[in-house]
User: Fold these one by one.
Assistant:
Number 1:
Amino acid sequence: MHYSELEARMRAGECFHDLRLDPGAWAIVRVDGRNFSRYTERRYGKPFDERFSALMAGTARALLEELGGRYAYTESDEVSVVLAPAFAMFGRGLQKLVSISAAVAASAFTHEAGEPVQFDSRVWLGAGVDDVIDYLSWRQADAARCALNGWSYWTLRGTGQSQREAARALERTGVAAKNELLSHHGVDFNGLPAWQRRGVGLWWENHEHPGHDPIRGVDVVTRRRRVRVERELPMKDDYRRLLARLLTERT
Ligand SMILES: Nc1nc2c(ncn2[C@@H]2O[C@H](COP(=O)(O)OP(=O)(O)OP(=O)(O)O)[C@@H](O)[C@H]2O)c(=O)[nH]1
Ligand SMILES: [Mg+2]
């Protein structure tokens, strides 16, 4: 068999190679830490740890920069990165996007933490900006739900309840009752840091950078792009308005 025949036959086996993001669609790539329940167990404070959150924000920044994303959002052990319809890396190929985003996340986190971790990755497609805003509101609602559950669980554990006792007690407890449970134990849920309840958002912003032009011998101001890390995100409709502005404005 000629090499070119073998090549063609073997390439045909790469049957997922042609999968691409639909032209004109918005895409979101979401990475999630693999087995992080176990990884974080003995290393980080519960339910929230500022050091862990900083590592995830650093991972989100690396993804935003490497993929040229429009917006990134992180909560718990996950990061979502919004890719505008003009996203053109990897010929919009799905396998490259999924594998490289997982690799970027794993290497960024590992480099900072000093020990190896892995992330999985998946892609979500939306037709327009409104879908993207719905997606991001969904992840923020998930952050709020997890924060309430996490705080309730660890507050009960703090009173001496076992894993099973705390989990069973919370199965039968609604949102209002969890808030009451927390305030009964001196935790004001709405007074907790915003990043714990609402997640962290990252986006590009322009800023003016004062400098000196040595050739002309004059001071100059240049405009530069930098990543803004927002740990005080608004929620609900205010968040949707912020997102609408970030996703539609020309940068
Ligand atoms: N201690 C601590 N743990 C955290 C923090 N943020 C997230 N986690 C952990 O990250 C886990 C994320 O949950 P999942 O992604 O559903 O579970 P996982 O174990 O990573 O499992 P897979 O994603 O399916 O591999 C939570 O269960 C928490 O245990 C934090 O600030 N402190
Ligand atoms: Mg995980």
Note: The longest helix spans residues 129-158.
Number 2:
Amino acid sequence: MTPEQAQNEIAELTQKINYYNEKYYQEHISEISDYEFDMLLNKLIDLEKQFPQFTQPDSPTQRVGGGITKEFLTVTHKRPMLSLSNTYNEQDLRDFDERIKKTLGDAPYEYICELKFDGVAMSLHYENYLLTTAVTRGDGEQGDDVTTNIKTIKTVPLKVHSQKLPPNFEVRGEVVMPHESFDRINDEIAKENEQREKEGKKPLAFLANPRNATSGTIKMQDSSVVAKRNLMFYGYDFLADNQAFITHEESLKALKEAKFNISTDYVKCKNIDEVIDFVNRWETKRYDLPMDTDGIVVKINDYSQRETLGFTAKSPRWAIAYKYKAEVASTILESVVYQVGRTGAVTPVANLKPVKLAGTTVKRATLHNANEIARLDLHQGDTVFVQKAGEIIPQITGVDMSKRPQGVAPIHFIENCPECNTQLIRKEGEVAFICPNEKGCPPQIKGKMEHFISRKAMNIDSLGEKTIETFFQAGMIKTVADLYKIKKEDILTLEGFKETSANNILAGIETSKQKPFKNVLFGLGIRFIGETVAEKLANFFKSIENLQKASLEELTTAPEIGEKIAQSLIEYFKDEDNLRLIEELKKAGLQFTMQEEDKPQLSNKLEGKTFLVSGVFANFERDEIKNVIEAHGGRVLSGVSGKLNYLIAGENAGGSKLEKAEKLGVQVISESQFLEMIK
Ligand SMILES: [Zn+2]
């Protein structure tokens, strides 16, 4: 094929496929079979590969995705993307109308009411009728450039044919995930998880709700995955340097003609009563829509009137969003069950008579803690109100007292652990009841192991929750140290484990021995020692021995280590069983000392010296200067004490710190003196 022939053929195929796409996605008409369509598309993909120079800017191959975005560039919006002020009741709408009337005087005005889709706001820019950039709202001033991913959305025109629209313009709208796609993806995850369970891998998390799923999807790196998720775009605003239309309604019609996806469920209202009618009409009707909506947007129709009304600092004065309250259902409380978590905290969960709520069936609701049960004054057999507001787990918001059966007993929080029957305790100042039987309560033991193997700790992903459960039931593991004693023969005696999976599990356990000290420290699951604290402790104390030896006072000199954490460490190391566990893990070969390569080391010029930083610096961010100190072998303390050698004082350094330093004879140095020290 000559280049000229290729060029013609590419142009022809592009036009043809775009035509079929448009017919299908705008008018739901298939003029050719899927097979024929795929043949045309594959032919175009092949030709574009051979002659990339002839690829058309509106090529339908972009819909299939494949482009990878490593990092989403931050883009400043040409016009700020303001958010609308929200209202939840009729009176607010009437007040809004009063304010409009006051400003516009006697002039007649109209409202356009639109459904408020619950997704991710998006700004599309067209230059010479071609889609050039798609930007998320971000903070309203700046957003992320997600063009490659947005191009895969079939309801976003890549090239526009219109006599009414100017060549350069912006369209704003909402990207949403239809319920069908949302359910399908979660079904796929469920299937995938069955497979992963068999392989002893950790399950993938389900998508929480369509809105979160949408925002997660448009920030994915691989656009071919985005393409498969069937997102939709609904346009609702037209903007250009010179407004081409007199009213908003005209712009919507022109966009619709130009093949933008514009919801037809909008109305024009002559007054606020008509607006309120529309709002009420959609309150329940919206649940029949194939995607989530969370309210109605009310906008002034006339652009010149919008200009008269103007903006507040945060939002336009000519529009308002009416938000529907979360749907509430009432149902019968069948029982309250109690779950014991890794830390021993006991959470009450309500089992409910199944009830339909916002399109799904609800059977359970969280009750949070004992205070919540008391606050609700829950009784056996109560009829309760359940609500779902964006979260996955529904909440009980109240009790229908009129339906309480006579003579029923109030529900009291259990006194003993449902798993090991130990009496529960409540620590001062905390709301949760906990089971103190840390070492004998099965869910706590298993929970500790799951924490130990988790990604941010030892990252043994060849082991999963199910495998831990199986090993535990078989009596193979009582503590995490037992993991390192498991032999292949032991695993092979268990039902469902084959040579390959046994090898994988053992390899994962073996590799974990190389995990740095900070991961091990985090993995031990000491109370209040999260990932960041573990890293700080590892950097400061360098080894478990130093940490063990440290007094309460010494512990609190470490950066950002407070009394609560220090106390928890002291308690942990007081316990014989914990010390035995550490010894066993050491013997197994785990890292209990910080390796030099864990942290970049520039020099040892500051070796043995301690520093405190205060104020603002010209050459460093505050955390940066701390890293520099450590990189040169120095240590950073958290307060002025007798152990402190230098206080580096930047601009606006704390007065009380300087005073105390002077009293204790600590040397106060400037930023430039510090720079001299490491030169
Ligand atoms: Zn227990």
Note: DSSP finds 24 helices and 20 strands in the chain.
